[in-house]
Amino acid sequence: MIAKLRAGSQNPFKAEAGSRPLLAGREDETRRLTEMLNLLCGKREKWRGPLASGSLPPFHVIGPRGAGKTALLDWTRRRAEERGFHCVSCTGLKAEGIEFSLQKLAANAAGGMTKLDHLRAVLMVKASERLGSGKMRLTEPPFMDWVRSGLRRRPVLLLLDDAQDYDLRLLSRVLWNSHILIGRGWPLGLVMAATPGLDDHLLKDRYLADYTFYERKLRIKPLSDEATREALRAPFAQEGVTLAPGALEAMAAQTDNYPYFIQVVGGETWNEMTKAGRKDVDVKLVEQIKARARIERETIYKDAFRNLVDKELLPQGRQVIAMLEASGGEMPEKEVVKALIAANPGVNNKTAYEICDSLREDGLIWTLGSSTKPGIPSFFSYFKEQDIEEPASDST
């Protein structure tokens, strides 16, 4: 008789935005983030003063939705807390309640303030917002002063997730003040995760038009076959589940090596297993979830495809697909840009790069270094299969 899972066991896979799955295959990314943490723990010029060695520009973690950006931020937070950092995680800066949003972020960054100090922070930020009349005032002290009060005690790490959706005024204020503190050598780390569209969002603010903090970019790389299998294997193993020969490969074949789909396939497999009262997984069981996993993937693809329709980028998407197929699946980004300019009247160098950013936003293509490749392979195929009717021309 097959024993049931131990009481309290929950599905370790979470296929949802902002989930925090097992981090696998991110050695290069975690190495660079560890280097940042090491520097921020360095010797100070004087007691509670700036760092003797200076600080590092913030990290801009870039990847399409579901690529594992939140998992990387969570890994960074846990490592920083282990080393005594005060960490402030932010998942949204919205236009509603501007004073409260800034006050809360500043107070959290200060860390450990008394109730009286907290009240003073609230009043200072609210007053500055009223006096500012919506204008950027870089000399205004509240946010910067309260963050610096936390930095005097220990290093502070700000983690901004899904930053492309933040209210631009608030994001601009946070970035500028952080930029000044980092430039002065204070032990402040900032890791901001966003889709490729963040750059266009930032450039809408004239104070950020020439701001170079986000040049320290950390692009999420595709997972290897080995990392995909480990991300599937480890959660089952931790719960005492046995994977029969071939089961792991059968699951991995449905994921496209994409973190979000790893969570979908792993989660559906887990649910099927527990429904049957089992604590083992074989190839037959994995086959039973294949249709559900495909439906989940195609739901994501439909949304991504609709985004491209709304942006009127289907012709350019087809052009880039044809280019990549003709070049063996890989092409220098500069050549993609040149080809888009040549094929589309009115498209210049700037707009061609913007087109590439839009195609990267939902995973149709991806660029690492200077090389552009298909993003999510099965989305690439899904895009090609869509037959969009062109508007009929008027007959005379």
From TrEMBL:
Domain ORC1/DEAH AAA+ ATPase intervals: 61-200
InterPro entries per record: AAA_22 (IPR049945), ExeA_AAA_ATPase_DNA-bind (IPR052026), P-loop_NTPase (IPR027417)
Domain of life according to the entry: Bacteria
Top-level taxonomy: Bacteria, Pseudomonadati, Pseudomonadota, Gammaproteobacteria, Candidatus Tethybacterales
Protein name in UniProt: ATP-binding protein
Region annotation Disordered: where it falls in the sequence: 1-20
Keyword ATP-binding: yes
Keywords of the record: ATP-binding, Nucleotide-binding
Matches recorded under PANTHER family: GENERAL SECRETION PATHWAY PROTEIN A-RELATED, PHOSPHORIBULOKINASE _ URIDINE KINASE FAMILY
Molecular-function annotations in GO: ATP binding; ATP hydrolysis activity
